[in-house]
Write a structure and sequence with these properties.
It comes from Alloyangia mangrovi. By secondary structure, the chain is α/β, with parallel strands linked by helices. The mean pLDDT is 90.
Length: 326
């Protein structure tokens, strides 16, 4: 049934209500009091204005360029979602803080009561933890994905697990094992011990995983905080085509876990162990993370990424260059 054409007075009344509601921000009850109408009448006038096409909502963001980059990242990779924050030129700490805050918000949107969240250590994950501010406690369990390295707060995964559980209102499960064993046999012995095996078995069932993406090329890379290596070995890693550290594993530019001795000594879950997670969030900041990110994305090891604008643009440029080279 076609709605009859409204008369001029009705159109004027609808227009007045729409202006008060959508432009001046008045509640329907406030409009009703102001115009001496019932709230139900105001609701009907707004609905009629919508039907007549009198309401056109145009939402613009001052950061539309960031939304465009996010869409390009999702379209160009296996990612299901991406969040890009502004890069603060000349201030890496502030850039990392902003990325951490965005990742913290994404994590809070993702988590549900009863979830298990598994995390790595690292500066980026630490930035996420410090930005967590839930509106109410969450009944979650936080577990590590790797053994730990003591000495710095961000390499001690147990510290970050405890801190995250405190901020979320959840429960921490800690692991009492080093990140690196002396050899593969010792690694197998450690991961076979019941207390460590139980933690990693729980981590394999995680609903959400949160991990940083490390670089291996810069001398100051935080990867070398985990296990210092001689300068010659660092150059050898780069020469071998190793481009990233993910869950403490060295990853080639093709996205595959490298066949390298260090990986054989890790007391950590394998990157593919997170494949059953509902959400695997990667967090990174800084242009030096562009190549590591490309490697991790090539391996389809993430389904969600939080990164700064400059780094995201560099990743997209590298991917475009790789396509042209192929």
């Amino acid at each position: 049934m076609t709605e009859p054409s409204p008369d001029f007075d009705l159109i004027r009344q609808i227009h007045t209500v729409l202006v008060l509601h959508f432009l001046e921000g008045l509640k329907q009850s406030e409009i009703a009091a102001k115009l001496n109408l019932s709230t139900s009448k105001v609701n009907r006038l707004i609905a009629q204005g919508r039907r007549l096409g009198m309401v056109q909502i145009d939402i613009k963001s001052p950061f539309q360029r960031l939304s465009d980059i996010e869409q390009n990242l999702v379209a160009s990779t296996a990612l299901e979602s991406a969040r890009v924050t502004p890069t603060v030129s000349g201030n890496a700490d502030t850039t990392l803080h902003q990325v951490g805050r965005a990742a913290a918000n994404l994590l809070l949107e993702t988590l549900r009561d009863g979830d298990v969240i598994a995390i790595t250590g690292g500066k980026a994950v630490s930035a996420v933890v410090e930005n967590l501010s839930p509106e109410h406690p969450l009944d979650v369990t936080v577990v590590p994905l790797t053994g730990g390295v003591q000495g710095k707060f961000y390499t001690d995964v147990n510290h970050l697990v405890t801190r995250m559980a405190e901020r979320l209102g959840g429960k921490p499960i800690l692991i009492h094992a080093p990140l690196f064993a002396e050899n593969r046999a010792q690694r197998d012995m450690l991961t076979g011990m019941a207390p460590i095996k139980q933690v990693f078995d729980l981590a394999r069932t995680a609903n959400v995983a949160l991990t940083g993406i490390g670089s291996v090329e810069p001398r100051a890379s935080s990867y070398y905080d985990l296990n210092p290596v001689p300068e010659a070995d660092r150059k050898m890693l780069v020469g071998m085509g190793i481009a990233a550290e993910f869950m403490a594993h060295l990853i080639g530019i093709n996205g595959q876990v490298a066949d390298y001795e260090r990986n054989q000594r890790l007391v950590a879950l394998h990157p593919h162990d997170t494949a059953t997670c509902r959400t695997v969030i990667g967090v990174a900041a800084g242009a030096h993370k562009a190549r590591p990110l490309q490697a991790v994305l090539n391996g389809k090891l993430l389904n969600s990424l939080v990164v700064d604008e400059e780094t995201a643009a560099a990743v997209l440029a590298q991917m475009k260059g790789s396509e042209h080279a192929a």
